[in-house]
Design goal:
This is HAD superfamily hydrolase (TIGR01509 family). This protein is α/β, with parallel strands linked by helices. It is built from ten helices and six strands; from the N terminus they run βαααααβαβααβαββα.
Length: about 230
């Protein structure tokens, strides 16, 4: 099994602690549009693509802009924000794990609901783009998480069967997508962050510094998810 193994990472909240910044961007956009979105509603969109989020918000708040206009404005605002930010770092332990997986010749991919322009900026700022054999977004893959499309497409790009892929995710929607794709899913939920429903994941971790290629191989070969 080990030589068949592939590892797929969600980006926001997993590889990098960018979720608070995305949250800030969305609050700024809501203010620009004159809508007040309660936190419990805002939380529903974690791990989903912009078109899904704005389709729901347009219906909820009767926004006059077209869906295409809202999605385009969101992307332009978000790209500009992250370009100006310029100081993102990967989560602790991520670079060491990626380096170890690369040395072990285990293929890796990113599978994210973020739009390609933002993905490129974040991965380049973090200095980790070169580790990945594929970077897949829902723009390429089809339906947004919680649909499994983006994970199935990532497995196809890596030329691996879904059953031989292990996913690191942090959101309920992302975990559901990975599990429905037929993949092993490890939830990443660091201490001190907003807790999400991760009950569908096979196992959870709080720190990448305790994960190695050997840990991942053991999870997959022995199915030691408890």
């Amino acid at each position: 099994m080990a030589e068949q193994l592939a590892v797929i990472f969600d980006m926001d909240g997993v590889l990098v602690d960018s979720e608070p910044w995305h949250y800030k961007v969305e609050e700024l956009i809501y203010a620009e549009l004159g809508i007040d979105v309660p936190d419990k509603v805002h939380q529903l969109y974690l791990g989903t693509a912009a078109d899904l989020m704005w389709s729901d918000l347009k219906q909820r708040y009767g926004l006059k802009q077209s869906l295409e206009e809202l999605v385009r404005y969101d992307e332009e605002f978000r790209v500009g924000f992250f370009k100006d930010l310029g100081n993102l770092q990967p989560n602790p332990g991520v670079k060491k794990l990626l380096s170890g997986l690369s040395d072990a010749n285990i293929p890796m991919a990113v599978a994210t609901s973020s739009v390609p322009g933002i993905v490129d900026i974040i991965l380049e700022q973090c200095g980790i783009r070169s580790y990945f054999d594929a970077v897949v977004t829902t723009v390429q893959a089809g339906k947004s998480k919680p649909a499994p499309d983006v994970y199935l497409y990532a497995a196809k790009k890596l030329e691996h069967e879904p059953a031989n892929c292990l996913v690191f995710e942090d959101s309920m929607n992302g975990i559901r997508a990975a599990v429905d794709a037929g993949m092993a899913c490890i939830a990443f939920q660091p201490e001190g962050v907003v807790q999400h429903d991760i009950s569908a994941a096979h196992h959870f971790i709080t720190d990448f510094r305790h994960v190695s290629p050997e840990t991942i191989r053991r999870w997959m070969t022995d199915k030691q998810f408890s």
